[in-house]
Design goal:
Blueprint lengths: L2 H10 L30 H10 L4 H7 L1 H8 L6 H7 L4 H32 L8 E4 L2 E2 L8 E3 L2 E5 H7 L3 E5 L2 E6 L2 E5 L5 E6 L9 E4 L5 E3 L2 E5 H7 L3 E5 L4 E5 L1 H9 L3 H10 L8 E14 L7 E13 L3 E10 L1 H12 L5 H12 E9 L3 E5 L1 H7 L4 E6 L2 H10 L6 H6 L8 H16 L5 E3 L2 E7 H8 L10 H12 L2 E10 L5 E9 L9 E10 L2 E10 L3 E14 L12 E4 H5 L2
Parallel strand pairs: 1-13, 19-27
Antiparallel strand pairs: 1-2, 3-4, 4-11, 5-6, 6-7, 7-8, 8-9, 10-11, 12-13, 14-15, 14-26, 15-16, 16-17, 17-18, 18-19, 20-21, 21-22, 22-23, 23-24, 24-25, 25-26
Helix pairs in contact: 4-6, 11-12
Amino acid sequence: MKKLTAVLLSLALSLSLTVPAFAAPAPEDIIPINGILEEDFDLWAEERAYLDAHPGLEDQLRASAYDYFAQEYPYYDSPEEYMEYWEMTEEEFLDEMVLYQMWELLKAEEHQNQVDALKEAMGGVPGQIGVMLNGEYVRFPDAIPEVTGGRTMVPVRPIVEALGGQAEMTDGKVICQAGGVRLTFTPGSSEVLTEYTGGELPGDGQMFPMDCAPYIKGGRTYVPVRFLGEILGYRVSWDSDFETAVLTDLEALAAEIDGRFTILNRMLAVQSYTMEEGKSLRGTVKGDLTFTAFDTLNGNTTYTAALTGSELFNTQAVNGSYALTLSDNLADELVKLLAGQGLPEEEVEELRAALRKLELDYIITRKGLAWVSSPLLNQAGGGEDIWLGLAADPQVMEAVFAQLGQTATVSEQYLATYEDSALSWAAAMDYADAMEELLGDKCFTTTDGVSTLRWDLDALIDWALRDYDPDTFTEEELAELRREMAKEYKELEYTLTVDSRGNGRVSALIHTLPQHIGDTSARLSLEESVRSGRTSMTVNLHIANVGTMKFTLTSELRTDPATPETQPPEGSTVVDAGEMLDP
């Protein structure tokens, strides 16, 4: 689909927001450092110029050629095999490895130049250890941070003042006050006295150990930035590219984002639930799919599929049971595809019967234990009530269960994929800015307690073109681009309403037009509603000369007196996944 269509589909799924990944583009294979290959560009001339500027480098690269090959070309048994395959002499091989290593150096230098330029633009100092607080570099006027024994140490006064506190030297001790905490550091001692000035808390007035001791250098006291940041409630990380300790107040970041989306968060709160220790919730889902394939010669064919599912969960375990029932003709079509793999006839019949109804049960615990059961497993194992034991990472499962029952917000959706770096705060603000233009409070009109947001084709084109540089594109060129984008659609609209209690409704329509010979038009409509404990959705799709599809999905959530199981039923056969897959 075109970019604008993808935008609208993202809007249509706003009830279960997903966050775009801010991933760096994949590196190209091997290209000149400027990224542009001119017709008269001489790769070997670039190599010679670089080697001439670095005396002795060529000898070093030749000496490491075989080690470099072993690391970068593990799919060859030996350098000799590589030389034989490409019909090259050892001297040609060494020249090539020198060239490739040189390009790696060039790319690393260019990357560092880009990092340095970014760091300077953000207020940091290239080549100097930096400390970033909520997206801004902390300024150190007369002493700079340094890494000692693998720990980032910072002059105490500038960092504490940046954190909104005060620092003073008294009787050879440094006393810092910030965020309701008073810390007393003693240079040379790896213990710090911690006092909570806002009231008594666990550990108040106790000495806490640090993994490095503060020290005095050049008349300035240095303290470990990680300990200081974490005890004040900041998330602390290290960005090796930028040589920067990154301190982030996640609560402040969430507040900054959520302050722009109070209406949308009201609706997301309706989808949330409260998990209490010892209480259970049951979620059920029911979906139906109908697809009709057009055939003017032989008559249309309709295929159907039905999904039913149930989950019982509490703070310690989740039990799930799902079934997918296919119409006979759809199961037959799948069998035809699989039977083409040369299955014996008796296995084909067993497969046809199994595909008509696919069932899966599972048990997952907070401790990381997991089992799945299915009639297909019973068939493969030649028995009944077989449960396959799976390995789940206990730390991952602990994090998953810890999230149960938390109120959903726009910031939570984003911060679930938050990665610490010197660019993360700026990336979060860019995300919030873009989302605010689509779904922020300023996009809604509120009347009698009901807030309504509407997007049509013209408004979405305006949004898509918002970042085009007027110095690069003339008004005539932008107008032509607008006309070209508009020609792709017959209809394009989106409506979201949220009432005062958070009940919401989404309505979206996309009708594309053929742009080239062989293209076809398509019309997709979506209706979705969210009320406390219940969500329902209907999607209709019509592709000209191909077919129509209708999909409905309803989910409900309610309390349940039952308790989920934490292991397979007594008497069942438990098989380790490794044994079944590799007997």
